[in-house]
Specification:
Layout lengths: L7 E6 H7 L1 H10 L1 H19 L2 E6 L9 E6 L2 E5 L6 H19 L2 E5 L3 H9 L3 E3 L1 H26 L9 H11 L4
Parallel strand pairs: 1-2, 1-5, 2-4, 5-6
Antiparallel strand pairs: 3-4
């Protein structure tokens, strides 16, 4: 019998992170909540994929008359909008309580990203790990920077030949000359 793979689940208090991540706070102030949400989702899609995390972002819908909704972004990222009257904090606490036994049995990790002090103490009590919103922002930006650096290095390496700087028509003529045509 094979052992289950150890997985890491990251639960993110979406509005808490937006409010404390300087870049997203600036986007919120100049472009609005929807744009800030979209940028957080995009950043966490890339981060989750590169760090092999199953991420769930939780946004409050407590002042809107709507049921809980889930939006599957990728196989690694899910966005939850809470139902009317429910905060992201209570959603995250219930998730921690529901996952507590599964996490213990499978030796998986559950990390909650929020800077809410009360929330921190509660999720640690359920056996989850805690990460501040600022630490998540730093980690996401650090991973994105490393990925950009790798891409730039590979792009520079692929253009090391003089012919790669020529326009397509010149490259075609050069290839014909090499082949002895014309």
């Amino acid at each position: 019998m094979s052992r289950p793979l150890r997985q890491t689940i990251l639960l993110v208090d979406g509005y808490n992170v937006i409010g404390l991540w300087p870049r997203l706070r600036e986007i919120l102030n100049f472009h609005g909540l929807e744009t800030a949400r979209r940028d957080l989702i995009e950043a966490l899609v890339n981060y989750s994929a590169s760090q092999d995390l199953n991420t769930q972002i939780v946004f409050d819908s407590q002042y809107q008359y709507s049921p809980t909704t889930k939006e599957i972004i990728t196989d690694r990222l899910l966005v939850n909008y809470t139902e009317f009257g429910q905060t992201a904090d209570t959603f995250i606490e219930k998730s921690c309580a529901n996952l507590r036994q599964d996490i213990h049995l499978s030796k998986s990790r559950l990390i909650v990203a929020t800077s809410d002090r009360d929330q921190k103490l509660t999720v640690i009590g359920y056996g989850a790990e805690w990460m501040s919103s600022q630490q998540l922002a730093h980690d996401v930006e650090s991973v994105a920077s490393r990925v950009r650096s790798r891409c730039q290095r590979s792009k520079r390496a692929s253009r090391r030949f003089l012919a790669s700087y020529l326009d397509p028509e010149s490259q075609k003529r050069l290839a014909e000359l090499r082949m002895g045509k014309k």
